[in-house]
Amino acid sequence: MSIPTRYKLVFFAPLNAVSACKTAIFTAGAGRFPGPKGYTECAFTSRGTGQFRPGDGANPHIGKVGELEEVEECRVEAICLGREVAVKAVEALKKAHPYEEPAYEVYKMEDL
């Protein structure tokens, strides 16, 4: 049985938006662990402090243009099986996330 290429989606969100963002990426197919056991909604979440300074053209959800803002956020990591799932999960994240520029990364994973 061939397992599709795996990707890891990592994103950062303010605490009050994490649940909605997770629901969105899971609905898009992220968080499904490969194998016959049927694990779904798999993710790792850790807390930290994010910071940003909105530029002149920004319309920030939190903070003010030109002012440094620090926000308690969560880093969420979830697996995506196949590129199509990763793309759909990113699209869903962008729709669910409250920031106009959500911070996220996608990594292609390898079996070793």
From TrEMBL:
Report the protein name in the record. ATP phosphoribosyltransferase
| Signal peptide (UniProt feature, chain positions) | none
Give the matching Gene3D superfamilies: 3.30.70.120
- What is the superkingdom listed in this entry's lineage? Eukaryota
What organism does this protein naturally occur in? Periconia macrospinosa
